[in-house]
Amino acid sequence: MQKPRDLLRKARTKGNQNLDQYFLMDEEIIDRIQEYALEFDCSHILEIGAGIGNLTSKLMEISKVVIAIEIDPFLVDFLSSEFKEEISRNKLHLIQGDILEAQLPPYTVSVSNLPYELSSKILFKLIPNKTPLVLMVQNEFAQRLVAKHNTPEYGRLTITAGHYGDIEIMEIIPPSAFNVRPAVESAIIKLTPSEPNYVVESEAIFLQLVTAVFTQRRKKMVNALKNTTHISHIKDPNRIIELADEGIMNSRPGELTPANFAKLSNIISNSTDN
Length: 274
Ligand code: SAM
Prior knowledge:
By secondary structure, this protein is α/β, with parallel strands linked by helices. It folds into two domains: 4-193, 3-Layer(aba) Sandwich (Rossmann fold); 203-270, Helicase, Ruva Protein, domain 3, CATH 1.10.8. The protein has 14 helices and nine strands. Strands 4-3-2-5-6-9-7 form a seven-stranded mixed beta sheet. A two-stranded antiparallel ribbon has the order 1-8. The longest helix is centred in the last third of the chain and has 13 residues, at 258-270. S-adenosylmethionine binds at residues 19-24, 48-51, 54-55, 69-72, 75, 98-100, 113, 115, 118.
């Protein structure tokens, strides 16, 4: 493995903070990310935001191929020359582009130190693929992912991500692990795909319902449902309110469990004119 400090020196970059370029320098943490990833099938690893190749170089040790996407053309040029040999033997497939626009080739796991600004959008793009994830994210974001109902952190992100897998915070990472140091703490999370402990008849209706009512998280469900039909596409909210459990309708979105939302979304799916 190439040392992160050597790669940073060779790349001659100060890091562009507009692109969230906070490079991970701590080799022990990079080793542990590799260990977390090894729990899964690492044959085809997707790395989002390869940066200076510090994590990429470690991921190549455990995979058949690393598919690395990086938006910054300056860093892509650097990676292309630094890892010329790995690219020529198809060990590294380097893509210059925006992860949010890119058509992703098949991969078995994504292991990435994400650009924090885009964490939600990237996660919502990755989770429907039902692959494992080992991701460095902002700690505050990680806390939202693992939140329990009746806490301020619980919301759309918690329920949507939890619908696709079990999420665990592996460790909290201080700013000192990076160059440049971010202003916030980070966390490494692991998502293991799993089936939820409830049944939904329509995933789309379940996810739309959750998205809709959490835009009105201070309202009781009875009002949140009526006020957000432009998002949930429920045609007759009064009919759903009649059919639904009164306790659920009198609660606020943040007080309901994912299973409560599943029950309600099944009522919506089964109502002929939903
Ligand atoms: N992998 C390196 C590491 O672990 O230190 C860099 C991680 S740094 C936190 C995030 C990386 O994502 C940066 O290299 C940045 O240029 C890249 N990036 C930012 N926005 C991106 C996007 N939309 N698509 C792909 N890469 C992006």
